[in-house]
Amino acid sequence: MTSAPLAARLNIPSGPLFFPVTAYGPDGSVDLDVFRAHVRAGIEAGAAAVFACCGTGEFHALTPEEFRACVAAAAEESAGRVPVVAGAGYGTALAVRYAKLAEEAGADGLLAMPPYLVVAGQEGLLAHYAEVAAATSLDVIVYQRDNAVFTPRTVVELARTEGIIGFKDGLGDMDLMQRIVSAVREEVPEDFLYFNGLPTAELTGLAYRGIGVSLYSSAAFCFAPDIALAFHRAFNAGTAEGDALVNRLVDGFYRPFVELRSEGRGYAVSLVKAGVRLAGLDVGGVRTPLHEPADEHIKRLAELTERGRALLREESA
Question: Alpha helix (H) ranges present in the chain?
């Protein structure tokens, strides 16, 4: 069931939903000072929420101690200005442990990642997320992707589960999402949040908006907040003029970025992190098993980012 405070804060965001990268120092350890600077800059640039230690933040690579420290740092930097949502995942016992660590660290909510490795049936998935939701007082958003794919009936039951307020789609099956939205709308009286959670969600924003899903995660905000903010304002304007700018940014920046991202496995994280470094903040590299982008790809990223900014200059001219 919807819990008003977090759901209300996320429902009509004033800016992009920010998924910060996790900063590492030269020795590979978490650099909390740089992470704090990254989070602080994102909030000051106009982020409506901070999703700490999620996919872009390399949740998979962090120890429980590092996870707690990063979530606490994000919560301290936010100081209540915007909500902080933390990742939680792996098997049920570990997901519950991460949920409790996030609550102790001051998070406002959880993004529940798919269970580790196993391909479970709907009954088991429902039990898993219900147990995670029951473990803390934090509101939970369930993330559909990879081995966690849900039927409309299961999402109806998730929406009825105390503490679960939303559903983030990282699968991209529009037929399934339409059926999910329709089933929940028909059977659950409370509002339920939906998020477009595909990598570089701006590319598919107009398609998702067509089925009533206007919230989305923005990895591009990590390294090009000006472009991401301009897109967000145009997208949420819902006008012909706004949609025209959305399409220009899709054609000139987001689609080429997605095509570049597809040239390397793990680039949804490592290419974004390279973009943050290009923007002037040394957040370090990625941890294995991810790897760094090729130099040529980083050069193309810099060119693409400048191209996106040129489009904004043309728009304001």
Answer: 4-11, 32-45, 64-78, 92-105, 122-135, 152-159, 174-187, 205-209, 225-237, 240-249, 255-261, 267-278, 295-316
Sequence length of the chain is 317
Decide if 126 contacts 153 (C-beta within 8 A): no
CA angle 282, 287, 290 (to 5 degrees): 110
List of residues 6+ apart from 185 with CB closer than 8 A: none
Q: Pick from 253, 232, 241: which is nearest to 310 by CA?
A: 253
- For tokens 């680039």, the residue is 267
- The single-letter code of the amino acid at 118 is V
Q: Which residue has the tokens 């650099």?
A: 31
Catalytically active residues, by annotation? 143, 168
pTM over 0.90: yes
Which residues face 85 on adjacent strands? 51, 109
- Listed in sequence order, the residues at least 6 apart from 298 whose beta carbon sits closer than 8 Å to its beta carbon are 271, 274, 278
Structure tokens at 157: 């039951």
* CA 284 – CA 281 distance, rounded (Å): 9
Summarised one tens digit per residue, pLDDT across range 24-64 is: 999 999 999 999 999 999 999 999 999 999 999 999 999 99
Tell me 264's DSSP state.
Answer: S
Q: Tokens for 70, please give them.
A: 């990063």
Among the listed residues 54, 32, 60, 50, the one whose alpha carbon sits nearest the alpha carbon of residue 108 = 50
For 143, the 3-state DSSP assignment is: strand
Phi, psi of 91, rounded to the nearest 5 degrees? -70, 175
Helix (H, G, I), strand (E, B) or coil at 104: helix
